[in-house]
Amino acid sequence: MLRISPYCFVLTLAVLIFATGSGRAEDEVRELNPVEEAIVVSQETKLMRGDEAAGGVQPGQLLIFSKAKGEWRYSAEFRGWVNLRDVIPLNKAVAYFSEIIQKEKTPAAYHHRGIAHAVLGNWNESLADLNEAIKLGEASSFAFFNRALAERALDQRDEAIKDFTQSITLNPNNVRALLERGDMLLEDGHNEAAMKDYDAAVEAAPDSAAAHNHRGVGLRMLGRYEEAEAEYTKAIKIAPKYSEAFANRAYVYCGLGKYKAACADYEQALEFQPDVAEYQNDFAWLLATSPEKDLLDGKRAVQLAESACKQFPEDPDFLDTLAAAHARNGQFDEAVKIAVKALKLLGQTEDGLGIHERMELYEKKQAYTEVEE
Predict the structure, then answer these.
(1) DSSP result, 210-256
(2) What is the pLDDT along the chain (373 residues), one digit of tens a residue?
(3) Is 192 in contact with 160 (CB distance < 8 Å)?
(4) For labeling, which of 79, 167, 320, 340 is most exposed (least CB within 10 Å)?
(5) What is residue 72's three-state secondary structure?
(6) Which domains does the chain have, with CATH numbers?
(7) Are 323 and 335 in contact (CB under 8 A)?
(8) Is the backbone of residue 53 left (phi > 0), alpha (psi -120 to 50) or beta?
(9) Measuring CA to CA, how many Å separate 323 from each of 255, 264, 280?
(10) Residues 6+ apart with CB under 8 A from 348
(11) SS3 239
């Protein structure tokens, strides 16, 4: 039973690629844990790589900093360093742009406050600000892209597709818009159309780990597993700490019967992002149901599945995994109890029938094992 994992559609805001940066000689480079988030406010923001300028960063851009050196911060996504004088911390951004709007209602201020609201998860406020920005004359590809993100978050799917398309029309090389529209098309079952967007994204940015990762997802959904594996491998080569690409490659490894390699990739994904419930769930499923007996580990599977279920206690897929893990660990009564809970959530669906079949095994004191296709 090869299941579709929701994290395959996630567009990460940044991938962790590390490089040298600018700062005073006496300043030591240090890792930021947790990372810092800031929004660009200066029109003159320079992106530095070593001692050379590598272009500018536009106002309103969200930056995620993973390293610090004096007054400089490193953005992994842009692979360069930015000075703190050119940005404002995310937690102060809404108030900052609100003060500007009180003085003068400019499209840029509404646009940038809309970005800040979006990052904070205030989607209704974000959409209101982005509507106002566009109404006042903000007509950039960036503005339509950001409004599409808000519309998508609010399940206004038709409007989101239109705005992603407008963003791409204004800038055919807008990789993020191509990937986001591709994801929506994929979610709606338009796999071939999604692949066109992913192909265009890779062509526009061959060094983008996200583009290769998303193209891998599209190929997997078309059943082209070997090609998907190659795309994930390219993403990992570009961004060696790209946890999502490791998890996605692990998933296709399972589909290809490469279970040991899948275990290794899940371990890597969880090393970089240990609390992602989807990674925990899929790795737990492998450890609980693998057809390769030497990979089975009921105890570890229970630990991972329990952690995932704590985050999403009403997710029937996660509960199904937890039940399988308990059965593999010899705790059959607990497995039956959890399977019953999952069935109540699912009802008479295809997934529900699968869980019911597994529950019958648990009642017979048998664990469930995947059958290789």
Answers:
(1) HHHHHHHHHHHHTT-HHHHHHHHHHHHHH-TT-HHHHHHHHHHHHHT
(2) 333 343 333 333 332 222 333 444 457 899 988 889 998 888 788 899 888 888 888 888 888 999 999 999 999 878 899 999 999 898 899 999 999 999 999 999 999 999 999 989 999 999 999 999 999 999 999 999 999 999 999 999 999 999 999 999 999 999 999 999 999 999 999 999 999 999 999 999 999 999 999 999 999 999 999 999 999 999 999 989 899 999 999 999 999 999 999 999 999 999 999 999 999 999 999 999 999 999 999 999 999 999 999 999 999 999 999 999 999 999 999 999 999 999 999 877 777 889 999 999 999 999 999 977 6
(3) no
(4) 340
(5) strand
(6) 1-103 (no CATH), 277-373 (1.25.40)
(7) yes
(8) beta
(9) 22, 23, 14
(10) none
(11) coil
Question: Based on C-alpha coordinates, what's the Rg of the chain?
Answer: 23
CB 34 within 8 A of CB 93: no
Rounded Cα distance, 145 and 245, in Å? 24
Q: Are strands 52-56 and 46-49 parallel, antiparallel or unpaired?
A: antiparallel
